[in-house]
Write a structure and sequence with these properties.
The protein has 314 residues and is of the alpha/beta class. It folds into 3 domains: 82 residues, Winged helix-like DNA-binding domain superfamily/Winged helix DNA-binding domain (Arc Repressor Mutant, subunit A); 119 residues, Periplasmic binding protein-like II (D-Maltodextrin-Binding Protein, domain 2, 3-Layer(aba) Sandwich); 98 residues, Periplasmic binding protein-like II (D-Maltodextrin-Binding Protein, domain 2, 3-Layer(aba) Sandwich). The chain is built from 12 helices and 12 strands. It has a 5-stranded mixed beta sheet with strand order 4-3-5-12-6, sandwiched between helices. A 5-stranded mixed beta sheet has the order 9-8-10-7-11, with helices on one face. Helix 9 links the parallel strand 8 and strand 9. The radius of gyration is 24 Å and the shape is elongated. The C terminus is likely disordered.
Length: 314
């Protein structure tokens, strides 16, 4: 048994049993992938994959049982490499962060700036995506840390840690009628709204509030990006609902913000890592820079609790 055989099994499942894509991912040939799988099956004495001729079409029952073990072995092999590298050089290496636009644009800049100043030899990569895309990047090992408000806590493969709470704000042009009097859901629903796409930046709490009030607002436009929302509010297409942190009075001089925390539920931003991952020293440093409450002891306790739960379920 070797790691190339295990990688062949894992990538075959990830690539939908398409051995051509598996070969490209592993920089080998399709016959080479088939051989690695067959040799592992021969050694284990069971078939891991369902076959239709020469094609693989799914996992057998033994394959379903073996896959989580294969995943753990490969994760631990990577952890071993990271542990060795961490002790060899604790202050240099790659760090890949996946975040939504709101986090990358409004929450991360000062953290990244300060981290770069204190860790100049760490090569930072910042990926943007939807919460679901971020979760998948973590699961696939394409990102070390994921930061988002939605979705991350719902993936059993991830350990999602709470970082900070935030609320929404309503954005309108100067002189807008909503600036006079109390902001209520019925008053807000009288205007066309511009807000986030479903699954982004607390949109679920916005929908839940209107539904609970029996209101069906008109959505003039939805977008992933608060800057896009602000642009169309400035053009007069409707009233904006964005994360309060997205409003900057110095930059957004053509807009006015109204606190909406009394209308919509408070949101929680989470930082996630793949379960079982070894965190190098500078990765923990970045975590604490972003969320000071997530000390090494807190993070380690969460990872160990998740690991114990996984063992109990196995």
């Amino acid at each position: 048994m070797n790691f190339q055989q295990l990688r062949s099994v894992r990538e075959t499942v990830r690539r939908g049993f398409n051995l051509t894509e598996v070969a490209q991912t592993l920089h080998t040939s399709q016959p080479g992938v088939s051989r690695q799988i067959r040799e592992l099956e021969d050694e284990l004495g069971v078939q891991l994959f369902v076959r239709a001729g020469k094609r693989l079409t799914g996992l057998t029952a033994p394959g379903e049982s073996a896959l989580p073990i294969v995943e753990r072995l490969l994760v631990e092999a990577e952890n071993l490499k990271r542990a060795g590298a961490d002790h060899a050089n604790r202050q240099s290496g790659p760090l890949s962060i996946a975040a939504t636009h709101s986090q990358a644009r409004y929450a991360l800049p000062t953290v990244v700036r300060d981290f770069r100043a204190s860790h100049p030899d760490v090569q930072l990569q910042l990926h943007q995506g939807s919460p679901k895309q971020i979760a998948q990047m973590l699961i696939d090992g394409e990102a070390d840390l994921g930061i988002a408000t939605e979705a991350l806590a719902s993936y059993p493969e991830l350990v999602a840690l709470p970082c900070y709470r935030w609320t929404h704000a309503v954005l309108v042009p100067p002189g807008h009628a909503l600036l006079d009097g109390e902001l209520t859901l019925p008053r807000l629903a009288e205007h066309p709204l511009i807000t986030y796409d479903s699954g982004y930046t607390g949109r679920s709490h916005i929908d839940e509030a209107f539904e609970a009030a029996g209101l069906t607002p008109t959505l003039a436009l939805t977008a992933m990006d608060a800057d896009v929302i602000k642009t169309y509010v400035e053009l007069g297409l409707g009233v904006g609902i964005v994360a309060a942190m997205a409003f900057d009075p110095q930059r957004d001089r053509e807009l006015r913000a109204i606190d909406a925390r009394h209308l919509f539920a408070v949101n929680m931003t989470r930082l996630a890592v793949k379960r079982g991952t070894y965190l190098r020293g500078y990765v923990q440093d970045f975590i604490e820079a972003f969320a000071p409450t997530l000390t090494r002891e807190v993070v380690q306790a969460a990872l160990e609790a998740e690991r114990d739960a996984a063992i109990d379920q196995a």
